[in-house]
User: What shape does this take?
Amino acid sequence: MTSAAATPSPVRRPSWAGHNYTLLTAAAIVTNLGSQGALIAAAFAVLQSGGSGGDVGLVAAARTVPLVLFLLVGGAMADRLPRHRVMVAANTLNFLSQGAFALLVLIGDAKLWQMMALTALGGVGQAFFGPASEGMLMSSVSGAEAGRAFAFYRMAMHGAGIGGAALGGALIAVFGAGWVLAIDAAAFAVAGALRAFLDVSHIPPREAGGGMISDLREGWREFVTRPWLWSIVVQFAVVNAVVAAAEAVYGPLVARDELGGPGPWGLALAAFGVGTVCGALLMMRWKPRRLLLAGSLCVFPLALPSAALAVPLPVGALAAVMLVTGVAIEVFGVSWMTALNQEIPEEKLSRVSAYDWLGSIAMVPPATALAGPAQSAVGRTSALWGCSALIVLLTAAVLCVPDVRRLTRRTSGHVAAGGPEASADAEGAVGRLG
Assistant: This one.
């Protein structure tokens, strides 16, 4: 007879890690492990096929353009159909397009237009997947532990991304870009299979609406009637754009001209990745009462990398700045997700998420394209200081919005459709504003 002491105790999940949350986190880890390496592999595939640096940019743009064009449609579809079906369909499209990309590279017959077309299909898949995924994640957690759940999810994603980039680089060196792209395609297949087991029985059936345009209008009304929401999305439309310009264009140039080559910039980016993991760990324990006030204050440090590159700081100091920035952006990210989770009605989460995504990425391509001309016009140092100044000014402006300063954490679940907004007038009714 086996003693009770010898019987291994079952592994217990935290109360906030339910069935859907666990599947979503596992699938996100799988896809991030594959996709980060695939980003590197795609660039090398273009170069190995005889393409130039400009061709690498064209392939990257081929993904971004359909992502921007189809995001709002994807958000509306994800609120109209069962979200897990939208996610699985998008993963299937990504599996097929990335698998075809890998096959062309492996047989040595990849042409630029083919790589652009297949990458564009991947962007379409991401446009439908992103809003559905965020809506599904939001609906899988609620209450006081939502912030902790989002922090762990983000930590898992960032950790997988760091590992995936390192593993992908090593695999490209040993086996070539085609096999890394094939691994990414397989990761989409595995993740899609996991997401097929998501349980949507707790989500009320969607009522028949007036069509896609009506759904988009309803999502727009939800977006524009919340000052804290649209003001921060507008803020990050510019913040993300100037950060992308600094990191994608100016950072490598400063590293080449002032810091001794690509190695120091790679170290700085790695420090940022470590910072995001540390920030997520912090947010698993810290629950700031004024969610958006704490989060917005932590946007100010995003101005530091551009300033550090403008000086430029030595490699060690630059890495320290990037580490702090990574921690700070996670405080904002978790606070932002928690605010969306508690304030946006469940049946509108994906549409609001689509407007959020659109604002976050729409200005990135033109900003990176204009970074070179801006450097020619005013000089690299002035352009970098300008990036820092824009971040500081926009963040200060957002903090002037009363709802951003006052919205507070609460412990109940999602607001009901047509529920109270985060305005000063609602303070006495729901006790959410301090």
User: Anything to note?
Assistant: Residues 1-9, 415-434 have pLDDT under 50 and may be disordered. The longest helix spans residues 227-259. The chain is about 75% helix and 0% strand. Residues 279 and 327 are 4 Å apart (CA to CA).
